[in-house]
């Protein structure tokens, strides 16, 4: 009976999760700021500034006016669920993961709270084209960017289920078992404007003092969204030989996926035997509208920069010659929300009470050629899963809105010849993908070897993960740049770790 309970539960939960997954504070990712710890509000210039601080389209880091980029790319994965320290302590030391050790592991990983949760985030940014032009007192920019982000979350009970299986020692009383998944894809078209709003050569301290301001209105085209959530309680009593699973499942879909799911629900409602209706038959066209416009929004990036140009420095063997500039910037990014059309919410809730399998030998002989294994597999994974978990009810919604990823940052930069240092403080105001509302700080630097090979380094602490460390390099001429940046750490604590990577694509400056 224990074996049947374990196999049944694994089949049911695995089927549910696999079905959900089969749907298969990062507002500006580029190789420069990734290599310098992920900040750069006061340092980033040219078309890179469009999404981070549009005022900085006016700053003149490389004595050029036109900045043009093709196929910039950035991606990252990580979060509290990626806890390398726990993995090393429990999975690489030869320890036997019995039930007691597994429960200890789950408390170390997730904490003592019975419904503690942890998550894993992913993002990807592709900027196929971006450009900015700086005139004497104003600047203009345009950028197109495609973004994908998702977040997968599980609670401690789900981890315990994966570690111990359907153990009556773990689930002798009701234990919360839950997970969620959110995926969104968008394309953004940004049109930016910046200008010099004040300048003085006689303001308190010698040098040229300038204030720039900029704004980037962004048209957001929603191209896909899926939200999935399961809250449940699981109990297994070995002595009684039963399994009880109280569950509440919800799914929010948009576009053609909404139509496909509705067709599945309608077919089940009309069928004499609903378990014979296979959901996979209705999802083949669920993503046929991938890349279409499924929702729209407008959002804004705004920023301001104060620059103190202290003149040129005398040439030295290490620092070379060049600018001596201090900057301070403030920026608000991603202010707005997106509305998706043709949305639906599907829900399924109830209780599975299972006390074993009745072997219907006549049906085994008739429908399964006498094979008991095929019959048991059908009952566990097809009939029960379909009858109980796929009994969705649909709810129409003309539209669905969700907040973007607003972030406020204050940044400082010091440029002295071949060397630069940056410091940023920020706070997010959303909880999607790689973003959360925890404050963060970044610190980074750049040194250009013989003025053309940048060596970038930095760190980032706070936000979605533990402290991360970064490095970047490449080739940076006056009129051309190709560079890469990466950020990660080899160990992690309670906040987990992450891996981020960005490359510049082809960057031209004139």
Task: Please sum up the structure shown.
By secondary structure, this protein is an alpha+beta fold. The protein has helices at residues 2-21, 31-35, 84-91, 99-110, 156-164, 255-270, 361-367, 372-389; strands at residues 66-79, 117-134, 138-155, 175-200, 208-237, 242-254, 295-316, 320-354, 393-403, 407-416, 419-428, 440-449, 453-462, 468-476, 480-488, 497-503, 506-509.
Q: What is the count of structural domains?
A: 1
Number of strands: 17
- CATH class descriptor name: Mainly Beta
Question: pLDDT under 50 segments (min length 5)?
Answer: 1-25
Helical residue percent band: 10-25%
Return Rg in Å. 27 Å
Give the topology string: H per helix, E per strand: HHEHHEEHEEEHEEHHEEEEEEEEE
Total helix count? 8
Described by strand count, sense and barrel closure, the largest sheet is: 17 strands, antiparallel
CATH fold group: Porin
Give the overall average pLDDT.
84
Query: Proportion of β residues?
Result: over 45%
Distance between the termini: 75 Å
Q: What is the correct CATH architecture?
A: Beta Barrel
Principal-axes geometry comes out as elongated
Supply the helix-strand structural class: alpha+beta
């Amino acid at each position: 009976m224990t074996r049947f309970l374990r196999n049944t539960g694994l089949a049911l939960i695995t089927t549910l999760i696999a079905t959900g997954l089969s749907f298969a504070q990062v507002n500006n990712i580029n190789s420069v700021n990734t290599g310098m710890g992920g900040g750069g509000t006061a340092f980033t210039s040219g078309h890179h500034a469009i999404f981070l601080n549009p005022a900085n389209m006016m700053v003149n880091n490389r004595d050029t006016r036109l900045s043009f980029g093709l196929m910039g790319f950035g991606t990252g994965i990580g979060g509290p669920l990626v806890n390398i320290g726990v993995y090393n302590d429990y999975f690489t030391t030869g320890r036997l993961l019995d039930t007691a050790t597994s429960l200890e592991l789950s408390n170390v990983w997730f904490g003592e709270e019975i419904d503690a949760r942890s998550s894993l985030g992913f993002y990807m940014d592709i900027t196929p084209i971006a450009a900015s032009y700086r005139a004497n007192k104003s600047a203009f920019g345009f950028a197109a960017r495609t973004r994908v982000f998702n977040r997968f979350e599980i609670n401690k009970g789900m981890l315990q289920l994966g570690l111990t299986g359907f153990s009556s020692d773990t689930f002798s009383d009701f234990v919360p078992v839950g997970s969620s998944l959110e995926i969104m894809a968008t394309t953004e078209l940004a049109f930016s404007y910046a200008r010099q709003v004040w300048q003085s050569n006689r303001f308190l301290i010698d040098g040229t003092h300038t204030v720039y301001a900029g704004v980037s209105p962004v048209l957001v085209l929603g191209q896909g969204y899926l939200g999935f959530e399961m809250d449940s309680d699981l109990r297994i009593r070995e002595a009684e030989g039963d399994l009880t699973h109280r569950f509440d499942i919800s799914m929010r879909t948009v576009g053609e996926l909404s139509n496909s799911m509705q067709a599945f629900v309608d077919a089940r409602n009309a069928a004499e035997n609903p378990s014979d209706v296979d959901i996979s038959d209705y999802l083949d066209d669920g993503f046929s509208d991938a890349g279409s416009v499924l929702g729209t929004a407008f959002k804004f990036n705004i920023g301001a920069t104060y620059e103190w140009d202290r003149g040129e420095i005398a040439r030295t063997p290490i620092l070379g010659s060049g600018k001596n500039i201090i900057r301070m910037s403030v920026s608000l990014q991603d202010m707005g929300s997106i509305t998706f059309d043709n949305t639906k919410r599907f829900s399924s809730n109830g209780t599975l009470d299972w006390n074993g399998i009745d072997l219907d030998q006549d049906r085994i002989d008739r429908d399964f050629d006498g094979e008991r294994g095929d019959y048991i597999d059908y009952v566990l994974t097809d009939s029960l899963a379909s009858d109980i978990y796929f009994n969705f009810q649909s709810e129409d919604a003309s539209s669905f809105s969700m907040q973007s990823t607003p972030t406020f940052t204050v940044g400082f930069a010091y440029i002295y010849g071949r060397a630069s240092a940056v410091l940023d403080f920020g706070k997010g105001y959303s909880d999607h993908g790689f973003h959360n509302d925890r404050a963060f700080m970044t610190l980074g630097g750049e040194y250009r070897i013989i003025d053309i090979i940048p060596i970038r380094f930095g760190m980032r602490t706070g936000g979605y993960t533990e402290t991360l460390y970064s490095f970047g390099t490449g080739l940076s001429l006056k009129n051309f740049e190709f560079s890469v940046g990466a950020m990660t750490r080899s160990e992690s604590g309670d906040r987990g770790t992450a891996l981020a990577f960005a490359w510049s694509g082809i960057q031209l400056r004139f």
